[in-house]
Amino acid sequence: MPPLALPVWRPKSVSREIEGRIDKALALKLRVVNKLSYEEIGRQFGVSAQAVHQALRKFTGILDELPICSVYEDSKAEMLSAVEMRLLGLLLDPDKLKEASLNNVAYTFQQVFNANQLKRGQATANVNHNVIIDDGHRLSDEITRLEAELSRLQNDYESR
Fold first, then answer.
1. Are 47 and 78 found together in one domain?
2. What would the pLDDT profile of 6-16 be if each residue is shown by its tens digit?
3. How far apart (Å, rounded) are the C-alpha atoms in residues 140 and 147?
4. Residue 55 and residue 78 in one domain
5. Do 22 and 47 lie in a common domain?
6. How many angstroms from the chain centroid is the CA of residue 155?
7. pLDDT tens-digit profile of 102-145?
8. CA triplet 74, 79, 84: central angle to 5 degrees?
9. Is residue 104 part of a domain?
């Protein structure tokens, strides 16, 4: 007869019932935006810090990177300019062009350039302003026509 095996003690994981009491979207917002600790968030939901941590476990890697993200956001335009400059250097370096097609480098440059333009609040495409102005005039004329029609219909209705 084999000897009795004693159960091995393992720490309890947070039950689904407890984890279900946590609004994950709100908990994540409290952690990221309000910068609350797991303990503080747990108090709001009436659960332990461990329960909050487990509920947000999928986001743990992202949460650890938040300080770097804010630095990146503050200097994004400058960083994109630096990448743009390096890519421009690749476009001009014959040795590097052997490793990647010109199309690939040009495409990458265009994507970084567009991202940089957007970050700086500048246009990413040429817009024909004459077409926009013509459309505006056409719409203004249509509004005037519809207002006249509405006025005529109101007068017809009131004269009955």
1. no
2. 554 444 555 56
3. 11
4. no
5. yes
6. 52
7. 788 788 888 888 888 887 777 766 666 666 787 888 899 999 99
8. 150
9. yes
Residues in contact with 36: Cβ distance below 8 Å, sequence separation at least 6, in sequence order:
30, 44
- DSSP per-residue string spanning 36-95: --HHHHHHHHTS-HHHHHHHTGGGHHHHHTHHHHHHHHHTHHHHHHHHHHHHHHHHH-HH
Count CB neighbours of 150 within 10 A: 10
Predicted confidence at residue 11, as pLDDT, reads: 44
- The residues, any chain, with a CB within 8 Å of residue 49's CB and separated by 6 or more, are 37, 38, 39, 41, 42
Q: Which domain does 25 fall in, by range?
A: 16-59
Geometric angle at alpha carbon 58, from 54 and 61, rounded to 5°: 105
Residue 137 in any domain: the answer is no
Number of domains in the chain: 2
- At position 37, the amino acid (one-letter code) is S
Contact 91, 109 (CB under 8 A): yes
Q: pLDDT per residue over 58-88, tens digit each?
A: 887 777 787 788 888 889 888 888 888 887 7
Give 15-68 pLDDT, tens digit per residue. Answer: 565 666 889 899 989 988 898 999 999 999 999 899 888 888 888 777 778 778
